[in-house]
Amino acid sequence: MIARVLVAWLLVWIWPVAFRAADPETLLMPGPVIEGHAKNEEECTTCHRPFDRSAEDGLCLDCHEDVGTDLTAGKGFHGRAPGLAAKSCRSCHTDHQGREADVVGLNPAIFDHDLTDYPLHGAHLRVACGDCHLAEQEKHREASIECIDCHKRDDVHRAGLGEKCGSCHVDTAWQKAEFDHDSSEFRLEGTHKDVECRLCHADERFKDTPADCATCHVSSDVHKGNYGPRCGDCHDQNVWTTMLFDHDRDTKFALGGKHAGVACGACHEGRLYGDPAPTDCNSCHQADDVHGGRNGKQCQDCHNTRTWTRIAFDHDKDTKWPLRDAHVDVRCESCHPGALDDPVEKECVGCHEPVDVHSGQQGKDCAACHGQRSWIETVGFDHDLTNFPLLGLHATVACEECHTTHAYADAEIDCVACHRPDDTHEQRLTDACASCHNPNSWAIWRFDHDTQSDFRLHGAHDGVDCLSCHLTPAADEIKMASDCGSCHFSDDVHRGAFGRDCGRCHGEQDWKKVKIGR
Fold this sequence. Notes:
By secondary structure, this protein is mainly alpha-helical. The chain has a domain at 19-96.
C-alpha cells in the first residue's frame, strides 16, 4: 500500500515536468529511427496516428508516393509482388532500430528481378547489380531501362541507326542481331544469311552498300579478276565453291576423276578466254614428274585421272621382279634412280645397304633374317644357330639388353659382361660365373668345393661363407694357400711357436678341441 502511494506521489510531481520537456508519445518511442526519417523523429504523427495503426500505411505512402503509384497501377516491385499490396508497410520495413538500420531489407542474392518492370533475361542475368544500379542513384528504381543508356559505348553505329537497339539486338548476346535484312533492297539468300554484318557493312556503314558480287568477293577471287566481275555466272549463293559452270558440257575437256576437284586457277592461270589452257598431262604435271622426264610425256600410259599415285603399269606382269608386301608401296624412283631402262640391283643389299645397322657384320643376305612384309617387325633370326644359344632365362631377355648396338656380332658372350652388377662376390671368385650359376636362375647356384677345388671343406669349414676365405679379387684364377695358418694366424695363441700346421693338434670340427693328451 505504501509503494502504491509513493508511485502516485512521484507521478504527480514528475509528470508535469516531463510533459513540458517533450510530447508524451516521444517518451514512449522504442528507439531511434533510421537516418532518412530522422527529421521527423520529433513529429510522431508524421508516421503514426494515436490508437489507429491502420492509418500508418497511408501516411507511409504520402511520403513514398512512387511506391503508392506502383501499388495502384500494379507496376514495379510493390505492385507486382504477389500478396504485397495486402500487407502493411511495417510488416517488411520496421523502423526504430537505430540510425544505421537497414529497413529496406533488400538481399540482391535472392531478389527476384522478374517482379520488377524490367525482368532480367539472357546475358542480363549475368550482369552485376552495380553495373545498372549506380552508386550515385539514391533508389534502385532510378536505373534506366533504355538500352542506349547502358550500351551507348557499345554502339558501333555511332547513333546512325537511332537509339532503339532492341529492334536488332537481343539480350542473349549483344553481337547477335535479328534485323530482317529481307526488308531491305538486298535479300539475304543462301550463305549470305550467315555472314556477319560487318563483312559487308565496313565501319558500320549501312547506306549505299554495294550489291554486286565482285565488290565484296574481290579478296576471295582466286581468279584475280581474270574471269570478270560477274561471279554469279559460275558461283552459287548457297555454296561459293559449288559452281554453276559445267566444264564437261561447256568445254572440250571433260573433268574426270581428280580433275573434277581441281581449282580453276590451277589450269587457267591467265585470262579465261584470252589464254586457253593446255590439255596435255605434262603441261600441268611437269612439277609432279618424279621421273625427271626420263619416262617421256605420255603420263597417261601409267597414271590415270582418279589418282596420280596409282599407276596402270603392272610390275609383276611386265617385269621379272614381282613386287610383294612392302615393296608394293615403294616409289618407283627409289629403285630406279636413273632412266627407266637402266639396270636395277636385285639383291637386298643393293637398296638396303645404306640402312644396314649391322655395318655389314651379318653379311649381304638380308633375307636370311628380314622379310618383305616388314623390315623391322618380322625378323626370323634363330639365336640357337649362333655360338651363344639362348637357354633358360636368356630366352626371355630382350635383344637390346645384350646387344646395345645393331652390330650384333660385337656383343660379349662372357657372363660377367652382362652380370657384373650382379656379382656380389666383388670378383673374389673369378669371372667364371657359370662354374656356380646357371641360366635358369641367377639365384640358383651349385658349386662342389670338394671336387672342383684342391681344398675339401670338412667340419666347421663346411658352413663358412665363401668370402671369409676369398678376400682378394681373382679375375682369372684363384690362387690361395691351403695351410691352416694362412687363415687362422690371428687365432694362433701360440704365436707361431708350433708352426703353421695347426691340424696336428686342432680338428676341423672344433678349433678348441685338441688331439694332444688323448
